[in-house]
Amino acid sequence: MGLTPLQIWAVSDGRAGIDNQVLGLAEAIGRQTPVQITAKRIGWKAPLDPLPPRLNPAPRWGRSSGSSDFAPPWPNLWIAAGRASLPLSIRMRKWSGGDTFVVQLQDPRLPATLFDLVAPPVHDRLTGEGVFPITGSPHRITPEKLAQAHTAFRSQLSTLPTPHLTVLIGGKSKAFNLSPERAERLAEDLAKALGQHGGSLLMTFSRRTPEAAKAILRRRLGGFPGLIWDGQGDNPYFAFLAAADIIVVTEDSVNMVAEAAATGKPLYIAAVDGGQWRKRLFHADLAERGAARPFIGALEPFNYEPLRETDRLATEILRRLAARRSHPAEDEATLS
Questions:
Q1: Is there a contact between 98 and 79 (Cβ–Cβ < 8 Å)?
Q2: What is the pairing mode between strands 164-169 and 200-205?
Q3: In angstroms, what CA-CA distances link 194 with 188, 223, 232, 249, 300?
Q4: pLDDT tens, 37-72?
Q5: Which end of the chain is more exposed for a tag (fewer CB within 10 A), N or C?
């Protein structure tokens, strides 16, 4: 008789980057034990949205119209990320009578004792009991997913000259921007690298890439062999990672850098405008592992062990779940 699947709710605010984190971790657990994954989305009506999580007076009834339903039977494992999930996450253990193991990704900026496990990035410098830091962020990248994506785009990629330079462009956030001036410099550096090494360019933009920066990069680099995704049709992001010989990623996105580092392919990080000390710590961590180098126009192959932090976190969660089942009385005491 097979194992009963572990019921997992992967809870996010619906943003793609947050979705990828909770689903990526749930899928990683599923690679080690049978699971049934349910994706849940959470949002709040206007009066409740700005409230601190512990002051939200209606965490099960004040959700916005686009939110998922949250009602028993509760899952075995709750994996959540993003501020919107916190009013539910901090109450889930009590609602379930301690039967649901609650994992909160990122730094919730609340006491870790409100959850069963907090899994922030190492660069947040959060430590303590119930905290399991990882380098970067959880994601959905696996060799199998990359191979499937590559197959789906094989007809478009197979005729392109090698080496393939994959470029992942982020853009504007609270701490960063990709100004026209910076886009011009980045385009020139990429053109220089392509001119020296030949091959082809595989470039994709994020939702945060400014239109002016897109136009500059397309104009300057459009003459090189390759593909620059125009946002139409299926997103070739995974396929571009699969086909890459070398990867360049802008520094603003932890998710994109972590996903690129999971491929084990030479990874270069390109500067944009602005800065943030937490991102610098992340990039320094990768550099110490030999997994990333700054992009200053020159590219060369190098090797490193692919980043497998999502699987490492999944293993830790299953270990803690097994320990809880072995000592249920101790766990119940934490709820009283």
A1: no
A2: parallel
A3: 10, 11, 25, 15, 12
A4: 999 999 888 877 777 777 777 777 778 878 899 999
A5: N
Helix (H) or strand (E) holding 69: none
207 exposed, middle or buried (CB, 10 Å; 0-12, 13-18, 19+)?
exposed
Q: What is the DSSP letter of 236?
A: -
What phi-psi label fits residue 274: left (phi over 0), alpha (psi between -120 and 50 degrees) or beta? left
The tally of CA atoms less than 13 A away on the side-chain side of residue 251 is: 28
Q: What confidence tens digit (pLDDT) does each residue in 100-121 have?
A: 999 999 999 999 999 999 999 9
Cβ(103)–Cβ(77) below 8 Å: yes
Burial pattern 67-92, b for ≥16 Cβ within 10 A else e, equals beebeeebbbbbbbbbbbbbbbbbbb
Quote the tokens at residue 56: 């939200």
- The topology (CATH level 3) of 6-135+309-333 is Rossmann fold (3.40.50)
d(CA 107, CA 130): 12
Question: Does position 326 have pLDDT exceeding 90, yes or no?
Answer: no
- For 294, other C-beta atoms within 10 Å of its C-beta total 11
Considering the segment(s) 143-294 as one domain, its CATH architecture is 3-Layer(aba) Sandwich (3.40)
Helix (H) or strand (E) holding 101: strand 101-105
Q: What residue segments make up the domains of the chain, in order of their start?
A: 6-135+309-333, 143-294
